[in-house]
């Protein structure tokens, strides 16, 4: 759509503002043709004023990238370009939740260092705000059995933010749950992060595709069947002694 409008505008600009105004009147969305007109005007001005192939190529790359992103968005799909952007999108998703229901899955080993970052704490505060607005968040933490004691502080942190935390032992989980983390909000939108075997991020994106949302929700429900409350694990119990106490 945006490229069609852009091409129409570029053609009409060759024949003057009168024809351009007539063409724009055919579109029902004023914001759309205003924005695309600004893009076209900026592109034309660049061609006229700048005699530098590097800059002109950057302009074309920007327009092509924008076209691809808009095409993805029109299908309810949005990719994140970085870990920071992915977290910012997580914050926006949880902030705009309407039905007050969210489910999440995180891997302790993959995310341990991430949770100590400032942007992760901002995300947790947004989790807490969501709950204070009447929502509920259930987060399943996948932990190797040998790492349970190390996960105790993480579990306590989640509780401090009023999050319903459940623990799933990593050993024995289906392979389809071993390389991804996700957040589901209102059973309508999913933020999904995929990992390689080495723990590096392969990709992060958001989708509202009904088939994929249902697929992820089914994975969560499957994992929830084997998940337990932290109190069911002696290593996570408040009465479990620390190394210093056991000295």
Description:
The protein is of the alpha/beta class and 247 residues long. The protein folds into 2 domains: 2-74; 79-246, Endonuclease Chain A (Endonuclease, Chain A, 2-Layer Sandwich), CATH 3.30.870.10. Helix content is 50%, strand content 18%. It has 10 helices and 7 strands. It has a 7-stranded mixed sheet with strand order 1-7-6-5-2-3-4, with helices on both faces. It is elongated and about 75 Å long. The relative contact order is 0.11. The model is unreliable at 1-16 and 242-247 (pLDDT under 50).
What structural keywords apply?
seven-stranded mixed β-sheet; alpha/beta; elongated; 10 helices; 2 domains; about 20% strand; disordered N terminus; about 250 residues; Endonuclease, Chain A
Q: Which helices and strands, and how do they pair?
A:
Elements: H1 2-13, H2 17-24, H3 30-49, H4 53-74, E1 77-79, H5 83-95, E2 101-107, H6 108-111, H7 118-132, E3 136-143, H8 152-160, E4 164-169, E5 180-185, E6 189-195, E7 201-207, H9 210-226, H10 243-246
Parallel strand pairs: 2-3, 3-4
Antiparallel strand pairs: 1-7, 2-5, 5-6, 6-7
